[in-house]
Amino acid sequence: MSDQRPNVFADVFTVERGRLRGEPVVRKAGAADLGGTLYELAPGADEMPLHIHHGMEELAIILSGRPTLRTLDGESELSEGDVVAFPRGRRGAHTLVNRTDAPVRYLMMSTKVMPEVVEYPEQGTIGVSTRPPFERPAPGDDPADNLRLRFNRSDAIQ
Question: Where are the beta strands (DSSP E) in the chain?
Answer without folding.
Answer: 15-17, 20-23, 34-41, 52-53, 58-64, 68-71, 74-77, 83-86, 95-97, 104-111, 116-120, 125-129, 148-152
